[in-house]
Amino acid sequence: MAQRIVELTWNCKECDSKGILGREKQCPNCGAARESGEMKMDGLDAKGADGNNVAATVTDSELLSLANAGKDWFCECCSSGNRGDATACANCGAAKGTPKPAPPPAVPKAAVAGVSIVVILGGLALLGALCFGWMWWGARPVEAAVTGVHWQHSVAVQQWTPTDSLGWEDTVVATAEVPPVGGVGERAGWAMVPGSCAMAHFADEDYICGSDRVCTPRYRSSTESYSCSRTESYSCGEDCVDNGNGFATCTTKTCTRDVPDTCTRTVEVPDGEDCRDVPRHCSRPINKSQCHYSTQTWATVDTVVAEGADANVTWPEPALGPLGRALRTGTYTVTFGWTGRNGAASRDIHPATIEEWKTWSVGDKVSVSEPYVGDVVIKRGDVEVR
Ligand SMILES: [Zn+2]
Ligand SMILES: [Zn+2]
């Protein structure tokens, strides 16, 4: 940014002379000293069409020294204006005046009373204690008792039975039957039923049944011109600042503007296509020879159940034929009852073994907790019961 010095002009209040050059610190007409009331200079905002100050640039070295001497100061004795770098009044010889007294210090504002953080923390702690107490009260254990015990024994009677089964001829291996002895040691035999084979659908297989031509367009890069604009900088006048001593410092301003231009850009343009052959997939059924086979399996022919609510536990003993067996299943139940939050409540458990079940008797005491979240917890002593 270019800078230059221009000279301003002032008016004498004593004799009403106009347009006195800024370099003069006494009126050339009446000889009166330039005072602080006469420092409002003319010419600071006199601008031409180009935005520049109309005044000529000061080049004389003595005038430049005057312009760069700092703001004028005014004598306290005779009010005359003096060069900023002068130490004594050029008019009356008095030394440069005493500095301006400092303004009184600002009174600090009263501290804003803060809200006591202790009160807030105390409130939160009390609220937490109330919530915890409510949860504990709701989940506190109550006494419960065994109100019933029950056992059920189920015996399935199974018979080694001839049966017909379908199989793929290339997979089934002819096997001799070994019948069970005392319900164990059996092996199923496989014997094809003569004349029972027929072709049947086994699976579907995938195969290549031709091809499809698939094409995708191809592009190439190309450069094209287009109208655009660019931003350029230019000088757009001056800003002038009063030096306070009859001169002003003017600084060139820089502005920007958009101007038309021609730009280039890369575009993709069609350039033929790329093609290739893609295999086409088809599906076809595979048929294989499927046959009936004579074989054997365990078939459940009867189920006998015994149950009770006492300790006299027995297993049913159904009669079995020479090719039969028995499969045993036991279910054991203990029922607890108590007075809960919502009135009478009960819960069944199912011990895995009869030995475990036999440790329970009607009237045994346990404790029950019903938490607000989660399942009921039953405890015998310190051990949870499931
Ligand atoms: Zn005058
Ligand atoms: Zn003076």
Question: Quick check: average pLDDT?
Answer: 89
What is the percent of helical residues? under 10%
How much strand? Answer: over 45%
> Cα-atom Rg, whole angstroms?
57 Å
Enumerate how many helices there are, as a single number.
3
Main β-sheet description:
10 strands, antiparallel
Shape, principal axes of CA atoms: elongated
Question: Cofactors and ligands present?
Answer: zinc ion
Low-pLDDT runs: 109-114
Q: How would you characterize the overall build of this protein?
A:
The protein has a domain at 1-100. The chain is built from three helices and 14 strands. It has helices at 61-67, 117-139, 354-357; strands spanning 3-7, 9-10, 20-21, 73-74, 81-82, 142-168, 191-192, 198-242, 247-308, 324-340, 343-349, 365-369, 377-380, 383-385. Strands 1, 6, 7, 8, 9, 10, 11, 12, 13 and 14 form a ten-stranded antiparallel beta sheet that branches. Strands 2-3 form a two-stranded antiparallel ribbon. The chain is elongated, with a radius of gyration of 57 Å.
Gist of the model:
By secondary structure, the protein is mainly beta. The protein is 9% helix and 48% strand.
